[in-house]
Design goal:
alpha/beta; D-Maltodextrin-Binding Protein, domain 2; Alpha-Beta Plaits; 3 domains; 6-stranded mixed beta sheet; 5-stranded mixed beta sheet; 36% strand; amino-acid biosynthesis; prephenate dehydratase; aromatic amino acid biosynthesis; lyase
Amino acid sequence: MTSRIAFQGEPGAYSHQACHEARPRMEALPCPTFEDVIEAVQSGAADQAMLPVENSTYGRVADIHRLLPESGLHIIDEAFVRVHINLLGVPGATLADVTDAWSHLVLLPQCALFLRQHGIKGRVSPDNARAARDVADMGDKSHAALASELAGDIYGLDVLARHIEDHDRNTTRFLIMSPKADMTRRADHMMTSFVFRVRNIPAALYKAMGGFATNGVNMTKLESYMVGGSFTATQFYADIEGHPDDPPVQRAMEELRYFTSMLHILGTYPADPARD
């Protein structure tokens, strides 16, 4: 039986590309929303989930941090995927033919310089892969899509201009999640992700972080976000280098627990080589 990995978006989306690169032997399952991706794994329709958490150009992916703690899933890997934006047109079209380019609202500013230089107007589509499908359906040489080469292959479009993004390091970090945690793996560079809430005492966050500094544990990410729409309930998401069984990490986490009202480890996994 073929194992499946769920992703948000239509076939040809960058999350689909991530599935191809990180899990080439798994069948990719498209889902309309992030909630649907999680539900697919919870129900057994998929074995793993591919979820984007941040992009080097536009930052944190909205809603993901809110969904992770309640999903019941565990991070088992991370994947850094280079996001190349391509101008895709119908067969026979040329760059000079294009007057309008369709893509997701987030993608358009990432190639604004190219569009401006060529006098192309950016048009908003719900999804970059959907834009490719719609352009193929229109069959109009003046309309193109901004999407992945994978989307071009799927919908029969030609690459009119390749890698047109303004920033040459545009990268998205994905988390690969599974119903079961895997704490047995060891690598030279391990990562641990967790969420927590600090106790309502003065300087609680400062004190909670002290254990990582005194034990020499490197924290690569610390982000805060509101819980339940409340301005007073703040939850934190953190990534650290190391394994919970490492003595320095153990001591740091023990100190963290003292100053927190909730601590939930999301997963421990080998760092993607692209992280370095």
